[in-house]
Every structure is written in structure tokens, then in C-alpha cells.
Amino acid sequence: MDQVRRLTAREIPQIIFPTYEIFIPLLEKIRPQILQILKRTFSYGPTERHQLDVYFPQKNPESEHNKKPILFFVYGGGFVTGAKSMPPPADLVYGNVAAYFAQKGFITIIPDYRLLPEARFPVPARDVLDAISFVRENPEILRSGNGVEGDVDSVFLMGHSAGAANVTTIFLHPDLSPSISKVNIKGAVLMSGPYDYNAEGAINTASPEVVQNFYGGLESIKKNCPCGLLKDISEESVHSLPPMLLVEGEHEPDSFKVMGKSFQRALEALTKQTVPKCIAQKHNHISLSLALGTGQGEEWAQQAVEWMTSKV
């Protein structure tokens, strides 16, 4: 993690490749441990982007109850990139994330979803919601064959960056929130999301033009980004929001820290409850997920595990 800390740049375009160069060799060292996790792939819709991977924990021989909570991990990528299985030499990303949480006792599911230019707001969030619905309607896919099965009444969502925006959209969008409210979501872990926007540029992604294309223009961004959706959320939807844990890297771009604070304050004002935030020491925006499984920089994830376990 000291290598990450020593990176002087913070903005996403400048840190992507240096951060991958740090962690790809570390992940390669644990390739056998990642690949030994039982994984199955299913289609939840009509296109190649409508597939999901299910990673299973091992059965605990000392326990008669091997029904496990379910964790959906929604990766980021600035609305234009990302996949549940990245191409070599990064092919262990995001399998390392799933393996980490599977080893902690969660059936971990990573769905692909459609991206720009094909899919604009709120299509990616709807895809993730469809993946959740598919799993609930087909509980047999959550049986490992060795006695482990998923508990469809104990579901958590975790989203990183654009994935966090998609997760919050599911809870806040008036067309999507009624469906997710029928699922027993125990909690949501939101990692470094682009939650807000204003003309001064609080949002700062790899390409602001991409964000405007995704949402359909400046006014649509203000209305439909997570903070914008919070302003118009119904009282019924507020009451149905699950507990949320915010995660933020110590070395996030300043714009993401601004957005994170805006979202946290707005959420606390609406729910009248404290929204906890975990600051991941020495991490930048990219390293949060890449570090899992390496034995370095995993403290934030252990805190998330403990927080989720307390909600089961």
C-alpha cells in the first residue's frame, strides 16, 4: 500500500494504469486461491452483457446451517467500461473481490450490465435490478451442490464508483425503487460514487462529456444523479431505504470527497439517521477493489464484512 500512497496523482485517468501495475503481480501470486473458489455463470437476460457470475463459500463442516447471505458487487468503469471478468493480464479482477467475500461467508454475485453508448441512464441500474430479480426467482442457482445455499431474504449490494451510482439509482429512481423495495435488502455498501454534480464541477470522472452523454445533458445530470434523485424521493421510498455504509479511499480525487460529503449529508438529513463512512487508509480510487485477496489494504473490506454481518 505504500506504493499506492506514493503515487502523486489522484485523478482517475492518471492512476488507473500505475495502480493496476502495482496489484496485478500481487494478484498473480494468489491466482490458485482465487481460482479455487467455486464459480458458476448464468444468463439473466438476452444479451452477452446480461450474464452474472456466482461465487460460493465453502461449506462449514462444523455447522448444520450453511445458508449464506448474498452479496451483489457492482463494478465501476465510468459508465463506459467494466466487466465481471477483465481481459488479461488483469483477468483476476474482479474475481479477487468475489473470492475475498466468498471466503468471508457470502455468496458473491457479480453481474455484467450494459454500458455506453448502448445504454444510457437508467438502463444499467435496471439491468442490475433485473439480475437481482433473476436470482430471487431462480433460487436453485444459489445451491453449490456441497450443502451451501443462498439466503434470498438476506441480500446486500455493494457498488464501486459508477457501480455505486447504479446501486443508488435502484433505490432512488421512482421507476425502480418499488421493485427493489420488495427485496429484503439488508444493507448497501457504496464505494466512492459520483453522487453529485454542479456547474463548478463537483463531479470529476475520466470524461465529464461521458457523464453528460450518460444522463442526457446538464439538467438531466442535476436531476438524476444520486443527490438529485434524493431531492425528489418520496416519503415512502425514504422509509424503505436500507442501511448504507459509505467507503472512500484516503487519496480519492478531491471532487469525489466533495460528492461523498454532499451525499452523506443529504442522506442523513432525509433519514434522520447517521450514515457511517469508512476511510480506507492509503487507498486511491482504483486500489479499493484491486487490493482484496492480496493481504494488503483489506481493512476497509473487513469493516464492511463486520457491518454487513451485524445486519444479518
Blueprint (SSEs and pairs):
Layout: H1 2-6, H2 12-29, H3 31-35, E1 38-43, E2 51-56, E3 67-74, H4 95-103, E4 107-111, H5 123-137, E5 149-160, H6 162-172, H7 177-180, E6 185-191, H8 208-215, H9 218-224, H10 226-231, H11 235-240, E7 244-249, H12 254-271, E8 277-280, H13 287-290, H14 299-309
Parallel strand pairs: 3-4, 3-5, 5-6, 6-7, 7-8
Antiparallel strand pairs: 1-2, 2-4
Helix pairs in contact: 5-6
Protein name: BD-FAE-like domain-containing protein
Domain BD-FAE-like: 52-164
GO molecular function: arylformamidase activity
Describe the structure in your own words:
This protein is α/β, with parallel strands linked by helices and 312 residues long. It has one domain: Alpha/Beta hydrolase fold, catalytic domain (Rossmann fold), CATH 3.40.50. The chain is 41% helix and 17% strand. It has helices at 2-6, 12-29, 31-35, 95-103, 123-137, 162-172, 177-180, 208-215, 218-224, 226-231, 235-240, 254-271, 287-290, 299-309; strands spanning 38-43, 51-56, 67-74, 107-111, 149-160, 185-191, 244-249, 277-280. It has an eight-stranded mixed beta sheet, with helices on both faces. Helix 5 (123-137) packs across helix 6 (162-172). The model has no long low-confidence stretch (mean pLDDT 93). Residues 52-164 form the BD-FAE-like domain. This is BD-FAE-like domain-containing protein.
